[in-house]
Please model this.
Amino acid sequence: MQRSGFTTIEMVIVVVLIGLIAAIGFPKIRQSLDKANVRSARAAVGTLAATARAAAIQRGCPGVIHFLATNATVWVTTNCPTKVDTVSGVQQLGTRFKVTLVATRDSVRYDPRGLSLDNLTTNTVVRLAGSVGSNLDSTVINPLGKVVH
Model:
């Protein structure tokens, strides 16, 4: 009489092999996901800077992109004479993408022509770091207010 099926030893060997393969592959997958999160956060900062510039031009009043290191928070406002309006909603990139943010300035202001109001001679750099130490990226806003990555 023949029995079909697997022995306990065969099952243990298969489970151990699957565990080894997962242990080898998981750090690479984690690093790749973290790198993608940092890139996405960089793209979000660039998009929000473009939103601030466009809002200033469309509304005819100053637009501002704000950077706050706490939870990597970024948001856009317009400062019209009658009211201050939050255009983009507050984006908590730390929660959304699991990154940290350090900016050389706390905000960049745009005039109704879409140019920076700050009269700076240096770039504004927003540095983003993921949870894996080697995953770093940055967004650069030149003195005219244009995102140049």
Q: What stands out?
A: The chain has a mean pLDDT of 91. The helical segments are 8-59, 93-97.
